[in-house]
């Protein structure tokens, strides 16, 4: 038996549950160790990329990624961008990534535990971008654009890339 958290919100729910049973010190100790491990090991966690050769709008693509993987892909630096480009080199079409605008540009997997400050700020905007034409971001990997980011309205259907984070597994010793 093991536990995997791909969403830190689930961890917070579990912590609230544990607080209801304060006499169970073993579990509280286990959770404090888990919390420390999640924070220390999740920034820069290894990611797998999953190119989906179907078309959906950004919101539907995000839902698919969250149901089948972790989330839409996030890009933390130029090396990761190059890795993503390699994973979709068979496609010349743009793909949704997990960058969106609310009032500022944020990654859809927005929990700060998954990024260093520098990683959460990585953007490789294309020429004259962002320009006010949308609220969700796609990456275009055609040779002359080399993975630059552009944004569009979320309602347009294009392909997308999911990522799966390799997170901490806790095996209880019962």
TrEMBL record:
It comes from the Eukaryota. Residues 49-156 form the C-type lectin domain. InterPro entries: C-type_lectin-like (IPR001304), C-type_lectin-like/link_sf (IPR016186), CTDL_fold (IPR016187). It holds the Pfam family Lectin_C. PANTHER family: C-TYPE LECTIN DOMAIN FAMILY 20 MEMBER A-RELATED (PTHR45784), C-TYPE LECTIN DOMAIN FAMILY 4 MEMBER K-LIKE-RELATED (PTHR45784:SF3). This is C-type lectin domain-containing protein. It comes from Cyprinus carpio.
